[in-house]
Amino acid sequence: MAQLDNEAGSRLLDQFMNLFVYPEVEKRQKAGQAEKPLNLRAAQILFFPDGRRPLVRINSEIKAIGSVKIAEGLPKPQPGEPVREDQIESLDEINRPEDDYPDCGHATLIRIRDRWTIAFDFRYNRKLAQKHILAAREFCDSAERCLEHEEWHAFVDNLFSAAELAVKSMFLSMADKTRTHRSISRRFNRYADLGNIQPAHKKTFNKLYGARDAARYLKREVRITKEEARILLDNVRDIIDSASRRAN
Predict the structure, then answer these.
(1) Per residue in 41-76, is it b (16+ CB within 10 Å) or e — as a string?
(2) pLDDT in tens, 140-173
(3) Where are the beta strands (DSSP E) in the chain?
(4) What gap in Å lies between CA 155 and CA 141, rounded to an integer?
(5) How many CB atoms neighbour CB 156 within 10 A?
(6) What pLDDT sits at residue 225?
(7) CATH number belonging to domain 126-247
(8) 227 vs 84, which has greater pLDDT?
């Protein structure tokens, strides 16, 4: 979240206003659906992961949960009481309700007196990404049970599935729906080469990717020690945890 009282913040505000908010206001005014002039106090732009036209909300249409600081010397409102603009010293946090288009990115702009505050989050597909994380943890738990019994074919197959689901959740948050094993691997390695992934995580994913065919389709013997398997398992759990932080 940013308080728009500097040059960079003002440019960002202008971009959102000129690209999305003002065209929406003008369209509504021409259709007789908005006052002219309009006292613009808030706006919200929702960005869909499938590339459809963004949804623009104006004033009371926005859906947000905020944290405000009450001006010094004024009594704090009781739970359930409305907060007036003249009571607010600053707007400290803006979030969207969990059930409001959870897979969309957003930019939310709110004006308190003559000062604009903007919050934005361009992570997409949060709900779907979280489902991938839950499934990844299930496969990881299955892999750990296989490790205890030294069932190496099932261990590798389950652990690769866990790692791949976690990686897919990362890409979903970027509105990237890469699907095939090979394309996910290539995308992941390019992403890792940019410094976004720990080297140990990249090495683990690639080792499992290379071993999966041998494990699942018996193309060659699976050679792995219990100590090596434990390191792979721990690294995949780290990958899942990292992906989970991105999705939440």
Answers:
(1) ebbbbbbebeeeebbbbbbeebebebebeeeeeeee
(2) 999 999 999 999 999 999 999 999 999 999 999 8
(3) 2-3, 42-47, 55-58, 65-70, 88-95, 105-112, 115-121
(4) 10
(5) 25
(6) 93
(7) 1.20.120.330
(8) 227
SS3 of 127-168: HHHHHHHHHHHHHHHHHHHHHHCCCHHHHHHHHHHHHHHHHH
Backbone angles phi, psi at 107, to 5 degrees: -135, 125
Strand partners, 108: 44, 119
pLDDT band at 2 (very low <50, low <70, confident <90, very high): very low
Instruction: Find where tokens 């205890």 sit.
Output: 148
Determine contact, residues 153/226, Cβ cutoff 8 Å: no
Q: Tokens for 38, please give them.
A: 């309009």
User: What are the backbone dihedrals phi and psi of residue 239, each rounded to the nearest 5 degrees, phi first?
Assistant: -60, -45
What is residue 19's DSSP assignment? I
Q: How far apart are CA 62 and CA 109, in angstroms?
A: 9
42-47 and 2-3: which strand pairing? unpaired
For the whole model, what pTM was predicted? 0.75
Per the CB < 8 A criterion, the answer to whether 117 and 4 are in contact is yes
Over pLDDT 70: what percentage of the chain?
98
With 0-12 / 13-18 / 19 or more C-beta atoms within 10 angstroms meaning exposed / middle / buried, residue 104 is buried
Structure tokens at 96: 């969207």
Residue 6 pLDDT grade (very low, low, confident, very high; cuts 50, 70, 90): low
